[in-house]
UniProtKB/TrEMBL annotation:
Similarity remark: Belongs to the SDS22 family.
UniProt-recorded name of the protein: Protein phosphatase 1 regulatory subunit 7
Primary localisation category: nucleus
Database matches in InterPro entries: Leu-rich_rpt, Leu-rich_rpt_4, Leu-rich_rpt_typical-subtyp, LRR_dom_sf, SDS22/Internalin_LRR
Lineage top rank: taxon: Eukaryota
One GO cellular component, as annotated: nucleus
SMART domains registered for this protein in UniProt: LRR_SD22, LRR_TYP
Localisation per UniProt entry: Nucleus
Membrane spanning residue stretches: none
Entry keyword annotation includes Nucleus: yes
Keywords of this entry: Leucine-rich repeat, Nucleus, Repeat
Amino acid sequence: MSAMPDLNNKEDEGEMGDMKTMTFEPDILDIDLNHQRIQKIENLEGCVQLETLCLRWNLLTQIEGLSSLVTLTELDLYDNQLTKIEGLETLVNLTELDLSVNRFTVIENISHLKKLKKLFLCMNKISVIQNLEGLESLEMLELGDNRIRKINNLGSLTTLTSLYLGKNKINKIENLDNLVNLRILSLQSDRITVIEGLDSLTKLEQLYLSSNGISQIAGLDHNTQLNTLDLASNRIAKIENVSHLTELEEFWCNDNQISDWKDVDQLAAATQLQTVYLERNPLANDVNYRRKLKLALPSLTQIDATLTR
């Protein structure tokens, strides 16, 4: 069964905070205690069938009190005050773990989670990618908004399909060769100047590189499955080396330095192209900007933020 715990009829959930006073049925499957000002995980020993535990937006400082929850598949500790990844030793059936918006500096004590498919660690203080060996089922890794400077130690994650590394301090695309199943790669708002290191990612469908320091479109020769390419807010002066990307549906290149209308021909072979963003390029100052784009790329249904007629 799935049910909410008895919160002792306290009307103002904002004043909650003590799990000791809560009553949980022994056969409960899901517990959702968002925004209850809880400071300590406790009183869950009897919940031996629990599958999902959500403790978002609380005041937790330690991961504890979970050792009896062997059946747990989803654990959500988003937005607490946690500083150390610990207390997960027995949670071998976890498939989804959200530790985002905390105060972690080190990735540790999770390599035994063989069934884990999704790991969220964004908005922490992590500076090194490490200790992910053993996560042999991992499909999605979110490490955005940390302090990471180098892409490394991902070689064992061959099942990974989505990797999010935006808003870090990464200046080079590297060490991704083993991630042959990757379909989504996000490196937005980093410090990248060259598109490189993507040759092995032949299944890549979505590539997000906006808000970097890229000056040339290149390095995409083997990424022919791309349907979304985000290069917005860079230093690109020319659309080039994309004519082979015939699967493109979304091409975002606004806020660059593109001025030559001939460049648009690079997109002509992408017959499924639906959306193009080129606003705030010199080319977009043309009074006939939208009409010219639609004529050159008749499949378009959206130009910048506006639908075409």
